[in-house]
Amino acid sequence: MMRHAIRALLPAALATAVLAGCSSSGGGTDTAADTGGNGAAAPTTATASAAPEKGGTLGGAGSACELPVTFELAPDWKPQPVDFDPASEFAELGQQGSATMVCEIDAKPAGNIGFLRVWQGKGSGTTSRAALEDFVAGDGSASEPSYAATGAGSVAVTEVTYTVTSVLLDEPQTARAFAVATPAGPVVVHLGGLDSQEHEEMLPAYELAKATLKLG
Predict the structure, then answer these.
(1) Beta strands 78-81 and 99-106: pairing type?
(2) Where are the beta strands (DSSP E) in 74-154?
(3) Rounded to two decimals, what is the model's pTM?
(4) Which residues contact 1 (CB under 8 A, 6 or more apart)?
(5) Which secondary-structure segment (H or E) carries 10?
């Protein structure tokens, strides 16, 4: 009952909280040292449903968000660039570790409550593993991270699954992200969700982004 009530009320609240204080704007492969994983098991991938059809390419010149990478979007997922005002009370929402949120891809038009968010890290020499560890450390509620090096599209990435505590539902839920090193600095693509069920339902879109990832 609580989950259904939150599903009904949350979309407008999410849009207001995340975008108030930000304004819309127009639109290297890792080294061998970047592939270590402390023997951690590879993050699980979506198995319940097939990968979705493609809904357009994000990241290139003229796309909603111009990024150092490109990847395919699932149908009806709506991207929007974000640019947080440092003076805004919401500015901290746009920063996690040393990474800054640069693009938000909304799943609500596709029927889910959640986002794929793209974050830009610093340092052209920063490995994907280092960027991802910094990103996870920047989430004060993250626990039990499991890292793995894997291939994604035409590049090598590091991926992590971890557990966070839902602020709205006060229960643990799954989050995951992958990172790739680029000449412009590392890029992190993160998938959250209202709860673990929403997260699982959105996994095919995340997997599509990862499978079609290319350097800009």
Answers:
(1) antiparallel
(2) 78-81, 83-84, 95-96, 99-106, 115-120, 143-152
(3) 0.77
(4) none
(5) helix 2-19
Q: Which of 173, 205, 182, 156 is nearest to 102 (CA)?
A: 182
What is the identity of the amino acid at 122? K
* pLDDT range class, residue 149, cuts 50, 70, 90: very high
Could you report the per-residue pLDDT of 89-133, keeping only the tens digit for each?
Answer: 888 889 999 999 999 999 999 999 999 999 999 988 899 999 999
116: amino acid identity, one letter: L
Own/partner contacts of 30-34, CB < 8 Å, gap of 24 or more, are 30/127, 30/128, 30/129, 30/149, 30/155, 30/156, 30/157, 30/158, 30/180, 30/181, 31/127, 33/127, 34/127, 34/128, 34/129, 34/130, 34/149, 34/156, 34/158, 34/181
